[in-house]
Design brief:
Number of helices: 5
Order of helices and strands: EEHEEHHHH
Radius of gyration: 27 Å
Shape: elongated
Strand content: 15-25%
Largest sheet: 2 strands, antiparallel
Structural class: alpha+beta
Helix content: 40-55%
Number of strands: 4
Length: about 140
């Protein structure tokens, strides 16, 4: 606890002016401020990376591993009705596997997207990607 005591005389009246603050709260506020700054900086970096990816890819989504929910960041206009119906990663994985994967790539795709083992496979890897060949509506 930090406090300040001031003695004031205003006219004929005398006052004691006391202020105090909980230093631990100030430290906690500073920690929270630093965490918020770090989070905002990280969000800015993520946004820049996603914008760059968005120039190359037609569909982008994040998977929240805690609940396997999907957050769409970019979605093809002509596929939006189908893709937006997929709210979790399992539904999207099945849709991609069943409709877009070349047969010779389907096993690799299933292995790569297995969420039961993804954390341990990528534990010490900061970034990893895989290129899997799919087909499009035009062949």
């Amino acid at each position: 606890m930090q406090s300040d005591l001031s003695y004031l005389i205003v006219g004929k009246k005398k006052y004691i002016y006391v202020t105090y603050q909980d230093v631990s709260a100030l430290q906690k506020n500073e920690e929270l401020s630093n965490a918020l700054h770090y989070s905002q900086k990280r969000d800015e970096e993520l946004t820049k990376a996603l914008k760059a990816l968005g120039m190359v890819f037609t569909n982008i989504f994040l998977v929240h591993l805690e609940d396997q929910k999907v957050e769409w960041l970019k979605i093809q206009a002509d596929k939006e009705n189908v893709l937006k119906q997929c709210q979790n990663v399992c539904e999207i994985g099945k849709l991609i596997h069943d409709n877009y994967m070349l047969p010779e790539c389907q096993n690799d795709y299933l292995e790569f997207t297995d969420l039961d083992t993804i954390s341990e496979r990528f534990e010490n890897i900061r970034f990893f990607g895989i290129f899997i060949v799919t087909w499009t509506d035009s062949g």
